[in-house]
Design a protein that fits this description.
Elements (H helix, E strand, L loop, with lengths): L4 H7 L21 E5 L3 E2 L1 H4 E8 L16 E5 L2 E5 L8 E5 L4 E5 L14 E4 L3 E6 L2 E6 L5 E6 L5 E8 L2 E6 L10 E2 L2 E5 L5 E3 L4 E2 L9 E5 L2 E5 L5 E6 L2 E10 L14 H10 L4 E9 L2 E7 L18 E7 L5 E5 L9 E3 L2 E6 L1 H10 L6 H9 L8 E7 L2
Parallel strand pairs: 1-21, 2-25
Antiparallel strand pairs: 3-28, 4-5, 5-6, 6-7, 8-9, 9-10, 10-11, 12-13, 13-15, 14-17, 15-16, 18-19, 19-20, 20-21, 22-23, 23-24, 24-25, 26-27, 27-28
Amino acid sequence: MRRTIFYAVTSVVLSPILFSCGGDGEQGNKGLTTIEVTDELYAADELYDEVEFIPLQNTIEAQMKVFGLDPFMVSIKDAVFIVTDGYKDPKVHKYSLKGEFISNFGKRGGGPGEYESIDYLESDGKHLIIISQGNLLYYDASTLDYVKTEKLSADMAWNFTKLEDEKWFTASFSDIEVTDGRYFRPYTIEDIASGKIDTLPIKVPLLVEEMESSGFVFSQDKLWINIPLSDTIYTYEEGSMRPIIYLNLADRNLPNSEKFISGENDVMSLLREQKYAFNIGPMTKADDVLKLKVFGVKRNPEGVNMQDETTIPINDLFINIKSGQAKLAKSAASFSDSGFTKDGYFYQLLFVERWLSHLESGFFGKHTEKLQEAVDNLTDGEDPILVKYKIKF
């Protein structure tokens, strides 16, 4: 279940209070690395490496439509599965990583292997897993044949990651238990086989129900967790969770006192004033590089118009977890589209409005000629393009 970044950032403010750093003076945690983020904005020429633009063959059979929502994407072996809208037209489109259309399917209904909506996509390496209203529907990744359905306890959740055979990490607001009048704990680990559910000790305000952008990445036998508006990135490993990275966002981190504003006018003022910088929540990881979304590190001197996405100072933040270096850049795709990663590369989907804008502005610098070649090879002039790249440090 995902909304555009406009709705997410203007509807909720989240504050983890048991694992928060910075404002609570917990930077001294053992093993916690401080990442100093400046407002220097890197151009594509300086940042992107091994760039490739892959035209997707959006054929009549494919019928991949754009509904204004950020796509769900997951890569399995040499293919990518894409959902552009899980509600009006809940179809899965399968392409090769070279852009060749392979197949698609839509199985809306209430029978075996059918679903009412597509709330999320996941994979265990062998199966495409469609998550719909708490149901986990498994399909063979090669044939797309239906295999089985499992059930999570939470009917309404906004992020999922499979840890191992029967264990899932979820962020859920289903059947929440409110404490202190305004907090709840949304993060759980559920063992489907045994029915055991472990709730992690992260308290967040009740308003997090409207936020759907936590970032989970399972990599190198540990789970990396990024919580919206937190200054800290965590890892979960062998049953324990600990803070691992503290973000100093140009010395303008959002203070805890500002994390409890609830009125729409107050939140809008926070965004328009650009007084503070904060972490939005989505996260992906390619080898030793994390990619986050951050607001307000690089202010827009001309001001923010919430009706115009281009004025909102949300940027990609790339972090090399080995060197501790951080680089800020304009987002290649939409602000809340994190794409996917494979074999050390980042992938993002560019719809026609985005790649056309990049052509006109020269966004990709010396790589623009490659983008033009991809556009020239499109089957239809309004087809999407998959961009593949690494980050230089």
